[in-house]
Amino acid sequence: MSDNPENTERTTEKLLSIISALHERGPQGVTELATYLDIPKSTVHYHLQALKDQGYVVQTDQKYRIGLRFLEIGGQARRRIPLFEAAADEINDLADGTGDLAILMVEEQGLGTILYKQAGDEAIDMDASIGRRARLHDRALGKAILAHLPEERVEAIIQEYGLRQTTEHTIDDREELFDSLEQIREEGVSYNRGEAVEGLRGVAVPILTDEGEVLGAISIAGPAARLDGDRFTEELPNRLFQAKNVIELKIQKNASSHMNH
């Protein structure tokens, strides 16, 4: 007799909710997880043991935490994205050359994921951990990506995630956002003037294929006091354009190399 698909789906959802809770809340005991997720303790214990046996969670005393097996999987997933291989050195150079925080982002399932970052000597510690997911509409990286997605895809993302206003500078109106995206397409550069976090700025450019498909975006981010005046609107965009050209050439070269093998 085959398994009931509905039961299998519910079991999978419980397993994933336990992983998510450990990720978001840190080390937890069985009782804590059961209470937080409203799942029987026996069910939580069963799933934790299965995850522990496979190396996905680690038990210390009576607490469970996310294991480094996820780091291995995430690292492999990242290495298999051609953009990461092509962009990592350029991100490092941007950070070294500007002293600020340089970031590489890709879009997945309507959200932006930080694929790589490097901090320069003057960079401040921002909430930009590798693998972090964020909405696209309130940051330079996200708008650079949205500007080069098909309009129906942008509409679907807005429908799914909305245009939440996080600061007084956030674009939370659909028409205003589309006007902004059109300007980004025309100028080739995207700006964030405190739209995600008050006092923090960013400037970004998209990484495109020869056909105009957007692969991701690169940015330089930092406090408004450092990202100001001509440095913000001219020097940093020029640095990003130079890095963009190198990355896109690398991707083109790598694609051609694979086609010839």
Summarize the entry for a quick read.
With 261 residues, the protein is α+β, with helices and mostly antiparallel strands. The protein contains nine helices and eight strands. The protein has two domains: 5-71, Arc Repressor Mutant, subunit A (Orthogonal Bundle), CATH 1.10.10; 81-259, 2-Layer Sandwich (Beta-Lactamase), CATH 3.30.450.40.
Structure description:
The chain is an alpha+beta fold. It has two domains: 67 residues, Winged helix-like DNA-binding domain superfamily/Winged helix DNA-binding domain (Arc Repressor Mutant, subunit A, Orthogonal Bundle), CATH 1.10.10; 179 residues, GAF domain (Beta-Lactamase, 2-Layer Sandwich), CATH 3.30.450.40. The chain is 51% helix and 19% strand. It contains nine helices and eight strands. A six-stranded antiparallel beta sheet has the order 5-4-3-8-7-6, with helices on both faces. Strands 1-2 form a two-stranded antiparallel sheet. Strand 7 and strand 8 form a beta hairpin. The radius of gyration is 21 Å and the shape is globular. The relative contact order is 0.10. The mean pLDDT is 91.
CATH topology type of the largest domain: Beta-Lactamase
The computed structural class is alpha+beta
> Domains counted in the coordinates: how many?
2
Number of helices: 9
Mean pLDDT: 91
The largest beta-sheet arranges its strands as: 5-4-3-8-7-6
CATH superfamily membership of the largest domain:
GAF domain
What proportion of the residues is helical, as a percent range? Answer: 40-55%
What's the total count of β strands? 8
Q: State the oligomer.
A: single chain
Percentage of residues in DSSP E strands: 15-25%
| CATH arch. level architecture of the largest domain | 2-Layer Sandwich
Which shape, going by the Cα principal axes?
globular
* The level-1 CATH class of the largest domain: Alpha Beta
Q: Termini distance?
A: 47 Å
Strand count, sense and barrel status of the largest sheet are:
6 strands, antiparallel
Which ranges are low-confidence, i.e. pLDDT below 50, for 5 or more consecutive residues? Answer: none
Q: In sequence order, what are the helices and strands, one letter per element?
A: HHHEEHHEEEHHHEEEH
